[in-house]
């Protein structure tokens, strides 16, 4: 496999390996807890590979009247198709059940195969406010393996 760092724009090494498919056939999924995570994590990679089919899913804040429009504005600029769920991540959030997270992740995957899936690290500290995102990473792995 060729490294994407040698792509048409000659950008820095993204650590992403290219498959045998042409750029226009590549499909990428980014599953994040919050809108703007996608821009911080893969915004540059998305801009370097505009021919890819990018699908970005934020599992939280779907009803947030401030962040929702900004998320879709970012999708316009980054060239991705966005979807938003509405898992609870407010300051008084209750712990999310494994079933809730699995259901949200299955919705994100849409039984579609992807060349690349980017999501949270499963080593996130569960005692921090972002701790529930470790469940997202673990469930993406399980759901994509069984899809």
Could you characterize the architecture of this molecule?
The longest helix has 14 residues. Helix 2 links the parallel strand 2 and strand 3. This protein has a single domain, classed as Rossmann fold (3-Layer(aba) Sandwich), CATH 3.40.50.10320. It contains four helices and four strands, in the order βαβαβαβα. The N terminus and C terminus are likely disordered. The protein has a four-stranded parallel β-sheet, with helices on both faces. The protein is 34% helix and 17% strand. Helix 3 packs across helix 4. The protein is globular. By secondary structure, it is α/β, with parallel strands linked by helices.
CATH homology-level superfamily: LmbE-like
The strands making up the biggest β-sheet line up spatially as 3-2-1-4
What oligomeric state do these chains adopt? single chain
Q: Report Rg.
A: 15 Å
- What is the helical fraction, as a range of percent? 25-40%
Overall structural class, as computed from helix and strand content, comes to alpha/beta
Given as residue ranges, the uncertain stretches (5+ residues, pLDDT < 50) are: 1-14, 125-129, 142-147
Q: Would you tell me the overall average pLDDT?
A: 75
> Globular, elongated, flat, extended or rod-shaped: what is the shape?
globular
User: What kind of sheet is the major sheet?
Assistant: 4 strands, parallel
CATH structural fold name: Rossmann fold
Strand content: 15-25%
CATH top level label: Alpha Beta
Number of DSSP helical runs: 4
CATH architecture: 3-Layer(aba) Sandwich
């Amino acid at each position: 496999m060729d490294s994407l760092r040698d792509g048409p724009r000659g950008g820095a090494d993204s650590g992403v390996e290219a498959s045998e498919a042409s750029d226009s056939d590549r499909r990428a999924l980014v599953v994040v807890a919050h809108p703007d995570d996608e821009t911080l994590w893969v915004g540059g990679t998305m801009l370097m590979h505009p021919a890819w089919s990018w699908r970005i899913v934020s599992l939280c804040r779907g009803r947030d009247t401030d962040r929702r429009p900004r998320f879709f504005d970012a999708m316009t600029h980054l060239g991705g198709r966005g979807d938003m769920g509405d898992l609870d991540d407010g300051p008084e959030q209750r712990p999310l059940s494994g079933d809730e997270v699995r259901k949200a992740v299955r919705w994100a995957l849409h039984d579609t195969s992807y060349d690349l899936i980017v999501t949270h690290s499963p080593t996130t500290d569960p005692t921090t406010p972002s701790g529930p995102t470790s469940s997202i990473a673990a469930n993406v792995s399980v759901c994509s393996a069984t899809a």
